[in-house]
What does this fold into?
Amino acid sequence: MRSTSLTAHVVVILVLLLLPLGADHLFSGFYISLMARVFIYAIMILGFDLLAGYTGMISYGHAMFFGTGAYVTAMLLKHVTAWFWPSLLASVVGCGLLAYVVGYLSIRTREVYFVFLTFAFAQFFFVAANSWEFVGAANGLAGIPKPIVLPGLDLSNSTVFYYFCLIVLAAAYGLARLFIRSPFGRILVGIRENEERTQFLGYDTHGAIRRVFVISGMYGGAAGALMASMNSFASPVLYHPAVSGEIIIAALIGGMGTLVGPVLGAGVIILLTDLLSSWLAEAWMMIVGALFAFCVLFTPDGLMGLIRRFRSGRAAPGGSGHA
It folds into this structure.
């Protein structure tokens, strides 16, 4: 089973690496940009999964970090420097600080109270971005120059941007795996399974949740920085509650608490949204809703759960396995 899993991973990596080389001939350059958007959302949803999938704390305000990262990068690229790295660093650190403050005020609550409190914070930012003239208000920030990543190399080329986002996603995924496989990750799982018991064992559960909330916010900030760079535009729409809803739906469809699942979920949501909306107008939302309902009712552990059951069924009928 390990060899099959390794082969699947190698095939996926090769496809992602070779996709831009044939996209212009087989499809269109649009699909390169679409896949870059999938990678950006995957980074954001990976951060969400570290919080929700491994502690059970569902945030309905993660668009707050996505939008803030985009606006910080947009402001710096437009008014300070065209170099991407200072903007990325400022977005990541800024969203980490924002997450610390929001987390400090929110994580003392649980379940629906935590959901609505994070929603309230995100809604505040949504309203502020729509009304604050300094950041363009409802018109957003336009005219952002394409960022420079190396001397003589910027992100104006869609293929370069595709590979850059893929590298950032790979780094984000690798860091997430390190977090989860560390003692800190085991504390997070303990909180999800039984927080009181974890506290009884002497662990500071509030501190652990606060730290992972900060990490999750930093992932959102990095994704926002990439989104602003991709669109050359930052809009209040990035703060919209629908974005937070997409994050949750993608994580649930892919399978929370798996890391790989949110990446799959990001691909499903973005591809369905973009492709079906061009074919079916508003009807695409019904299809996404039906898929979400199917996952909740029949496979609550998402696509990764289906893959796990398929693999365990092939390896040992009647048995159970783990991806």
User: Anything to note?
Assistant: Residues 29-55 form the longest helix (27 residues).
